[in-house]
Amino acid sequence: MLHSAAEIVVSDVSVILGGRTVLADVTLKVEAGERLALLGPSGAGKTTLLRTIVGAVAPTSGRVSVDEADPFGPRREITRLRRTIGCVRQRDDLVPGLSARANILAGIAHRWSPADWVTIACGRVPRRFVPRLLDLAALHDITPLLPQRVEHLSGGERQRVALARALFGEPRLILADECTSGLDPVRAAVALRHLRASGSTVVATTHDLNVAGRCDRVVALRDGRIVYDGPPPATEEVERIYGTAGREDMVTGRWTI
Amino acid sequence: MDDLNPRRGWGRLAVLAVVALLVGWSFAGTDVGPASLIQGREGALQLLSGLFPPDLDGDLLSRVLAATVETLQMSVAALVLGVLIGLPLALLMAGNVQAPAGVAMAARTVATLLRSVHELLWALLFVATVGLGPAAGVYAIALHSAGVLAKLCSEQLEAVDRGPVEAMRITGGSRTSTALLGILPQARANLASQVLYQWECNIRSSVVIGFVGAGGIGQALGIALHLFRYQELATLVASVVVLVIGVDRISKVFRSRMGAASGRTSDRRSRPHRSLLEGSPR
Q1: Å from A245 to nearest chain B CA?
Q2: Count of domains in chain B?
């Protein structure tokens, strides 16, 4: 199931939004297939960095490239690039009014043939998509939810559907913004394992040290600057990054900030 | 703190005085008042007494029924044409669909043009070109309602939650697939509600434009009125009332059912546009 992965180069990127410096001279290279966790207090610029990589926020200065393509280049280049990216965001961003399976399939709408449009409009799944859909649904424990409208699902269920949507097209790059925040610890671990197993390059923002600990590399941001870049950090290091002491969740045993 | 300011009180009085003057001036200028009503009481009494008893002759009733059915047919045909023209225009006009600027501008201009000409004027135009009869009425209502639907539906499309739309866009969704899969499904219930409301409007319009010869019950009404056949008029008016109330009821049932299916069960926080519709009957 392994497929090719993307390489990201961020050089000297600064982003100023509404007069506030959100990212300051961020330079970062993510190797193909690397799993990178972005750590840092709220407002440190983690989400903005993801949005810059995907071309949704233009850097005030500096340059971003994904597989040597410019996310701010010609429209055609942007579209081609974006089709290799899977996204899971803080808010799940599924389309209400569509079923879970239609949402998952919509992630690769550019691969639909006219016949597929008709099939999906009739509420069925084109045969060639069925095996992958069932595999992913089983992995994320959402098989019974597939025909349901997403507005009838719980937050955690929606998040798993969103994960399946991001993974469905076998993206070269997965950008995950707090993708496990609404999941219970067991399902979060499962989700992470599948993100790892996908073979894609993964950039995941998180406050969860369990998530960070399962990544190859951790980059921490604070006030828009990189303050740590290396293997998953020890507790003392994390406290330095956040400028505060962490605590252990009494129920889940997870160590959070 | 403002309430303690005496100037504010005087300001309010001045505004009230101006409004009162404006109202008085408008009434005086249009002869509205008891005098004109008293003056018209003879005519009114004559008309009212003429209305009773309504003509319930079998032949007339069958003609009234035919005219009522024709009005219903006109409203439905005009609705279908209006939706076929109006909905594509709405999609091209909606800002979040991101149609090319020139196309969006052209769509907006066409919609404004269609909407700003009243059905009655369109009807006069079509009666002059395609001749008397319901076809002229259907074209007239269809064009006007297409303009109205384009505007109202594009607003509904623009009011959808931006998150899912952006999520589709940043993973490489084309403009068409984002519009069809990201925007339309979110607005579906509201669009349907808008279309049903337009159907109610079409019924009312088709009664009115019948007066200029564009078919349906309105045409029969106009003829009865001009020939002073008040008993026939009474029957026709009663059938209009029944028709309008019936359509309103049916439409309301459908609309409330759709509201319940799409709005109530969903997470309202993430879909602020729902609350815009839930509060009001429209």
Answers
A1: 32
A2: 2
